[in-house]
Amino acid sequence: MNQYDVAIIGSGPGGYVAAIRCAQLGMKTALIEKYSTLGGTCLNVGCIPSKALLDSSHHYEEAIKHFEEHGIEIPGEIKVNLEKMIGRKQAVVDQTTKGIQFLMDKNKIDVYEGIGSFEDATHIAVTPAKGKKQTLEAKNIIIATGSKPSTLPFIKLDKERIITSTEALKLKEIPSHMIIIGGGVIGLELGQVYKRLGSEVTVVEFMDRIIPGMDAALSKELLKVLKKQKIKFLLSHKVKSVDRNAKVVTIKADNKKGEEVVLKGDYCLVSVGRSPYTDGLNAEAAGVILDDAGRVEVNHNLQTNISNIYAIGDVVKGAMLAHKAEEEGTMVAELIAGQKPHIDYNLIPGVVYTWPEVASVGKTEEELKEAGVDYKSGQFPMRALGRSRASMDIDGFVKILADKNTDEVLGVHMIGARCADLIAEAVTAMEFRASAEDISRMSHAHPTYAEAVKEAALAATDDRALHI
Fold first, then answer.
1. Most buried of the four, 119, 198, 436, 442, by CB within 10 Å?
2. Catalytic pick from 66, 70, 342, 446?
3. Do the beta carbons of residue 171 and residue 85 sit within 8 Å?
4. Which of 319, 343, 367 finishes a domain?
5. CB 431 within 8 A of CB 360
């Protein structure tokens, strides 16, 4: 029987990063993955492939809508080759997952392909799709089995016309009318991809706003921008049935007045969140407790009720974000090694990769109001930047929320070009408990989108933004 200091079940961003950090710290490490490629949801059917399609579709939209204004003339008709676009996406995925395998080899991590299930608190059975089952022994075990797309109880996913994000990443045709159930991150990103490629897109959302977990000002601005891009929205609508007849999918929903609304499309993307994935884990054999939502229960050190077993990423409580899982994987590895790491969950940013991008860190204005915090706000529009006008990316703004008495930055919320990258400045500043004035006195290169951060900080500091 192979023996290890640490065995990790699941090779997503949390699992493979935990494996690398364990190996760096001198531990003999095993990584168990049920699929033939490493990287989990993020690299295979999530973050990476969706960004590849977002970039490809963005290039196409720029070509048909904006190149002429830039003085670029292309003779003939510009066409989408969906098969080639999907092929490029897959090439990006393949390259990335092979990169993870390289890192496992480099760090001398043993990789086992198969379903990892507990036999007891220190033994894991690995059952491959083909071949014999084998058992590993590990002093410490990290559960990193991730999540899967959620659905609604009355919806039957056929994965052909009634689909999840996984199938939406490999369609063989551009939908005529894609109806998306759910106005969260995944639905909006994929909705924008297919809208750019020529689909009619309708988003049906139960809440009264899109991206409901983010600051309300971001929801309002993104809704305005996406409506301008001709995506249709039905907010405060409760879906009650989804049926398919041949190539037609019919969705029935009730609006806030209780009136029935009927929609027909050729594809329905069910995008109502994700659920923790523990199928086949056999957690009860190790005595590990799951909560009512199917998540693994952990303490502040991500330790389960069984002291040598930990859990990280989407399978535990908290935001289902790849970078959150990575931080947790690193933290658990260092805890096992006897170090004293920490994570400030308030400073894990959230990003929506539509265009314009949306990014946020810290407290929202609604959370500060609810907590009774005395705060001030500074906001600066992207359209006031020379860089934004030069690139024709003028939608959006940066908003900084700071403590009214101490000036400490409590939250930063932005929508605009490259906000997915700009948010790192806010995270860094808040990690060192910067004030709005601290940010306002830092030199920002001109012309850049980042100048909006400085200007928003100036606006939060005695309302003295320079360029509005």
1. 436
2. 446
3. no
4. 343
5. no
Is residue 357 located within the same domain as residue 377? yes
**DSSP annotation string for 447-467:** S-TTHHHHHHHHHHTTT--S-
Whole-angstrom Cα distance, residue 395 to residue 219? Answer: 13
Q: How many structural domains is the chain composed of?
A: 3
* Residue showing tokens 């295979």: 44
Amino acid at 174: I
145-169 confidence digits (pLDDT tens): 999 999 999 999 999 999 999 999 9
Residue 64, pLDDT > 90, answer: yes
46 CA to centre of own chain: 8
In a domain, 117, yes or no: yes
Whole-model pTM?
Answer: 0.96
Distance CA 224, CA 222 (A): 5
**446 in catalytic set:** yes
Residues 164, 269: contact at Cβ < 8 Å? Answer: yes
pLDDT at 1: 82
Say whether both 229 and 318 belong to one domain.
no
Average pLDDT, the chain: 97
Is 179 found in the same domain as 145? no
pLDDT, one tens digit per residue, over 386-396 is 999 999 999 99
Is 103 within 8 Å of 37 (Cβ atoms)?
Answer: no
Residue 279 has pLDDT above 90, yes or no: yes
**Short-list 410, 409, 422, CA closest to 449:** 422
Name every residue whose Cβ is closer than 8 Å to that of residue 174 and which is 6 or more positions away in sequence: 80, 82, 194, 197, 198, 199
Inside any domain, residue 155 = no
